[in-house]
Amino acid sequence: MEFMKGIIEKEIAGIQEIGEAKEGALAKTEGMIHSIRRMGEISFVILRRRDGLLQTVYEEGKGDLDIRGLKEGDAVQVLGVVRKEERAPHGAELRLEKVRILSEPSEPLPLPVDKWKLSSSLEARLDMRPISLRNVRERARFKIQEGIVKGFREFLYGQGFTEIHTPKIGAKSAEGGANIFKLAYFHKPAVLAQSPQLYKQIMVGVFDRVFETGPVFRAEKHNTKRHLNEYVSLDLEMGYIDGFEDIMGMETALLQHILKTLETEYRAELDILKVTLPSADQIPAVRFDEAKKLVSEKYGRPIRAPFDLEPEEEQLIGKYFKEEYGADFVFVTHYPSKKRPFYAMDDESDRRYTLSFDLLLNGMEITTGGQRIHDYKKLLEKIYDRGMTEEGLETYLDAFKYGMPPHGGLGIGLERLTMNLLGEDNVREASLFPRDMNRLKP
User: Which residues, including other chains, have CB under 8 Å from residue 273's CB and lie 6 or more apart?
Assistant: First the structure.
């Protein structure tokens, strides 16, 4: 009988260890063959590992090694001599002495993943996602996305938030409307969650500050470059706030931390994609009605949608604050009550507007947030004013019936934020396996 006591150690070197090893040292490593460049008596076999590309070199006639049977896509274990080489990735390479094939593909790769930039169409890359993601640039996007989530979590843990995990199948939508995916749940009607909103508000009454990263589902019939029907939402909710400005301040500091995390820990991926990150040192805030007026006057665009921002208006607001203040981000506050859900707190000085906001980055909305109604009677009043009933909201309302602190929160679309930071023009580029109106696979 065997007993597991922990990680089974293997004498496998990472790229950094190989780069730091002494000239002439022996090193063993593993990876997949990314490319093979045969140049007469010398061949370069590039390995793709989780930590990057490693150059290995085969010299014909040295030892009994024969690489003629190797091909792209092979998973291998290699042993070689470390040699310093400035032209190699990470400044070092391995002179091959032994190669052991761990597995090999049954067919040639359908995409040239070893190319610096895949020339295939987006649709082709999405159809062959398991392969296209092996391209260095393609996968760099998702390392950066990892950094966004890492920064999000790290910062909020440091601010005393508790991470929660809420259901994604429910009996009723948090925000109402027709954009809901319906399903049968053991012969009962159910819906996929549009957001964790009701649950994270409930949990403010338990932990004061909570956050979640998880999928949300929107049955919106949009076939645009900025919409997905399933995406990852970075949500937070915090209690004992003095106003919705506390939420905007928290998000500003959060973004500063995320950007710093990317700059310091994901520099290699940023360089691969030639990304220059925006600045969140200070973010201007402008009222919704004032923002519409400013861009209408400066750019001569008539105001057509009085209760919402059209995509073109968002772009012009971003352009205005970039030109006038050098700002990449801008908070648009006090959205009309008609366009906000029932739990949004109205502005007591003008109840046509709410104490809520959107955050725009480069003229695209990436965050929606604001202060919530925490008074039970006022919450019921707004529910009734909207012609809604308490049906399906009983558990949610119980939290307020027995007391809740002043609170608010926000949700950030992870794919949209990633897309925007990377300068992509289609949100599908920032989703591992996107789901839209026409795509249910891979």
Answer: 137, 140, 141, 144, 422
Q: Yes or no: say if 160 and 209 are a contact pair by the CB < 8 Å rule.
A: yes
Radius of gyration of the chain (CA): 26
Nearest CA to 428 among 145, 225, 125? Answer: 225
Q: Which residues are annotated as a binding site for ATP?
A: 218-220, 226-228, 365, 413-416
Beta bridge partners of 194: none
Per-residue model confidence as pLDDT tens digits over 2-18: 898 898 888 898 889 99
- Evaluate if pTM is beyond 0.90: yes
Which residues carry a binding-site annotation for L-aspartate?
Answer: 175, 218, 368, 372
Number of H helices, E strands in the chain: 12, 18
How does DSSP assign 253-309, residue by residue?
HHHHHHHHHHHHHSHHHHHHHT------SS--EEEHHHHHHHHHHHH------TTS-
**pLDDT (mean) for 358-381:** 97
| Residue stretches of the annotated binding site | 175, 218-220, 226-228, 365, 368, 372, 413-416
- Read off the pLDDT of residues 45-59 as tens digits, 9 standing for 90 and up: 999 999 999 999 998
